[in-house]
Specification:
single chain, 717 residues, alpha+beta, Rossmann fold, Methylamine Dehydrogenase, Chain H, 4 domains, eight-stranded mixed β-sheet, five-stranded antiparallel β-sheet, 39 strands, 18% helix
Length: 717
């Protein structure tokens, strides 16, 4: 059994904490007040009123001053939680093996891996020739590269076929704005070859030509493919451009190194081009011309294309075709569409291929050999996540996959195709007394009001669970068909060790049950995402997984939209809300085609220039539905340099909440002035941010220790 925080907690048995917390409150200094400048936008027979549009003026000293006031206010309000934050930070850190190596993977005669070093914010990228007994060669030390920078993120990372050159990209701002660099690994010299706003890259097989894609300076849409020959003077030749604002392009190379691949995708339509990697000046061949609402993905092996496509059904099928005649007329079906088993991906190797699919919302991996002998990889738990790991070698009899669950740390396995056995290569160590058997994980199916069953993962520590008494913390996302994995989390481990029940609601709009699940929570069905979340909460409470009045929730980005919408719809159901980089100003953002992501995401949210979509989106847009009523305790966080959700969305949302809500509950807004969409880039800085989020959540749910110098009682506790 692990050691709990050194801070004095009232109790961890949950028969006392709520009462123990009743005398505690956070300070309530005067909150910042944003001025109102009334603006009106007539559209579709209606008028959008926006009193805080001026907050979009990024260079305005007045905007900067307000954000600084918000940070100062947050520091003052949350100051009593600092000891708890520090304790939780140390507690999380005690469960992390700070100095560690990743599992080395083989590629063209080298073993590649990363190292983390205690006290260092970033990983070090390394390789050894032949085996791990060889001399270590440091490829990139992000810690050294981050000196003098306020942010550091590595994007692309590709080594040339002759192992001599490394092409990589870095973002030192946080705006997902990556710059290309090329390093000669023989000398350690960074070459003058460079490019701006690079979104993807890979080498042709001549070890001299580099293909890369770039984004538009304003919209950040990845729309152009360039070809660069080393030492070639600018400008590089433009090879391909897609001017359709719904589509983004990305370049890569097949595992066997024979073909360059160019993906050209919108949210609902895709098109793939191929080029022999040894013919960098050649013409690209379209696999199958794009057709609206048809998506496909391609892998290749032995001059055969393996195509995962949804042309005959939402759950995708697998077909093959010769590389010389890749079009649909030459497709041969291998796996048909199955109503209950979405097909996600295929990975092709010289003598077998690997299929990833989902059954009842859980991923499964099947190995298929040339004689069509199929073997499924056996997995030990009822709730988990599994996915292919790094498999860089085409000619191999081994397949690596990553496995974890909410109570099993990340583990890398190697499956031997010949023996049909898996061997554990490494499981991440969790120091500090972690015991897998102390925790329980369950999959429940919560009924939505329309009868749909919603898969929900519930995790708790067995000895601290008391039916109907625990605080409940629920996480959700539910957009873009994204799957939120049932993974291991040190953050959640710490929460459970303080008696909180963690729940992950796999709501519609996500992809856990395939494309139909996504379709059930997007466009004109988007509100299913929000009601699924509240229906899941109510079901969990009825089943005794939590106590009414002690429920917290968290969501980020599009999950922040979820938080804002649910908070407007059911403020009575939640005590505390963590609303991170939230997409809350839906109408104004989706009406501004100059912003990153907007036009491409008409296929996810709808186009509000069309009246039907406008009317529907307006019914749930969080910013537009803030009204005079009581709201829960809310912590909103954003980053000034976020390119995916602009800082002004949460800034406007918080300003309107402050001016409108009728309660005296806590509302704090924290702005990371040097972070990106994921917050701080350094691992320790990020962990400190997480610790403050946890401290806020625990305090508001009545799980906090007695705070020193606490003020008067909090009404309603």
């Amino acid at each position: 059994m692990r050691t709990l925080s050194a801070l004095l907690f009232c109790s961890l048995l949950f028969s006392i904490p709520a009462a123990c917390a009743s005398a505690q409150t956070l300070p309530s200094p005067p909150a910042p007040v944003a001025k109102k400048i009334h603006t009106e936008h007539p559209i579709n027979g209606s008028v959008l009123v926006d009193d805080y549009a001026w907050l979009k003026e990024r260079q305005s000293p007045e905007v900067k001053a307000l954000l600084e006031q918000e940070n100062a206010y947050a520091d003052q309000v949350l100051a009593p939680l600092k000891p708890l934050q520090d304790s939780l930070y140390k507690e999380m850190l005690s469960h992390i093996q700070q100095t560690d190596d990743s599992v080395p993977y083989p590629q063209r005669g080298y073993m590649y891996y990363t190292r983390t070093i205690e006290g260092k914010q970033y990983p070090v990228f390394c390789r050894r020739k032949g085996s791990m007994t060889g001399t270590e060669e440091v490829l990139l030390d992000l810690n050294a590269m981050a000196v003098g920078e306020k942010f550091m993120s590595l994007g692309g990372f590709q080594v040339s076929d002759d192992n001599n050159l490394l092409a990589y990209t870095t973002d030192t701002i946080g705006f997902r704005q990556y710059k290309l660099h090329v390093k000669d690994l023989r000398t350690g010299t960074v070459l003058p070859d460079t490019a701006e706003r690079v979104t993807s890259l890979d080498w042709a097989s001549d070890n001299h030509t580099l293909f890369y894609t770039t984004e538009d300076q304003v919209s950040k849409r990845s729309g152009q493919l360039f070809r660069h020959a080393l030492s070639q003077p600018a400008p590089d030749p433009l090879v391909y451009e897609d001017k359709d604002e719904r589509f983004n392009i990305f370049v890569g190379k097949t595992r066997d190194g024979k073909y360059m691949e160019l993906y050209d995708e919108s949210h609902i339509t895709s098109e793939v081009r191929l080029l022999p990697a040894n013919e960098p000046l050649g013409a690209w061949t379209v696999v199958e011309p794009r057709k609206a609402n048809i998506q496909y993905r391609v892998d290749e092996g032995n001059d055969t294309l393996y195509i995962v496509v949804n042309d005959t059904g939402k759950n995708f099928r697998l077909v093959t075709a010769p590389t010389q005649t890749p079009g649909k007329d030459h497709w041969k079906e291998v796996i048909p569409v199955r109503a209950d088993t979405p097909l996600e991906n295929v990975d092709v190797f010289q003598n077998f291929y690997v299929v990833t699919e989902r059954v009842q919302g859980l991923p499964m991996i099947r190995i298929v050999q040339p004689n069509q002998l199929t073997k499924s990889i056996a997995l030990p738990e009822a709730v988990y996540t599994v996915a292919p790991a790094t498999n860089a070698e085409f000619s191999t009899t081994k397949f690596r996959y990553g496995y974890q669950s909410p109570i099993t740390p990340p583990s890398t396995f190697e499956y031997d195709v010949n023996s049909s056995k898996s061997a554990l290569l490494k499981q991440i160590k969790v120091p500090g007394g972690f015991n897998h058997d102390s925790y329980a994980v369950e999959r429940v199916w919560a009924p939505a009001k329309d009868g749909t069953k919603i898969p929900v993962t519930v995790v708790y520590r067995k000895d601290l669970f008391h039916k109907g008494e625990n605080a409940l913390y629920q996480y959700g996302y539910g957009s873009y068909g994204a799957v939120i994995p049932d993974s291991f989390s040190v953050k959640n481990l710490v929460l459970m060790d303080h008696g909180i029940v963690y729940a992950l609601a796999h709501i519609r709009g996500g992809g856990e049950l395939g494309d139909p699940w996504h379709d059930g929570g997007k466009m004109m069905t988007k509100k299913n995402t929000f009601t699924d979340f509240t229906d899941a909460t109510e079901y969990l409470l009825k089943q005794g997984y939590g106590k009414p009045g002690r429920v917290g929730m968290e969501g980020a980005s599009a999950g922040g939209l979820l938080m804002g919408a649910v908070t407007n719809m059911r403020p009575d159901l939640y005590k505390a809300v963590l609303c991170l980089v939230p997409f809350v100003d839906v109408m104004n953002t989706m009406l501004d085609a100059s912003l990153p992501l907007t036009v491409a995401e008409y296929e996810e949210w709808g186009n509000p220039n069309e009246k039907a979509a406008f009317d529907y989106m307006r019914t749930y847009s969080p910013y537009d539905n803030v009204t005079a009523k009581n709201y829960p305790n809310i912590l909103v966080r954003t980053s000034f340099d976020d390119s995916q959700v602009m800082y002004w969305e949460p800034a406007k949302y918080v300003s309107k909440l402050r001016a409108t809500k009728t309660d005296k509950n806590t509302l704090v807004f924290m702005v990371n002035m040097h972070g990106g969409h994921g917050g701080s880039s350094g691992r320790y800085d990020s962990l400190k941010d997480t610790a403050m989020n946890e401290a806020f959540l625990m305090y508001e749910l009545g799980v906090e220790p007695l705070l020193p110098n606490a003020a008067s009682a909090h009404a309603g506790r």
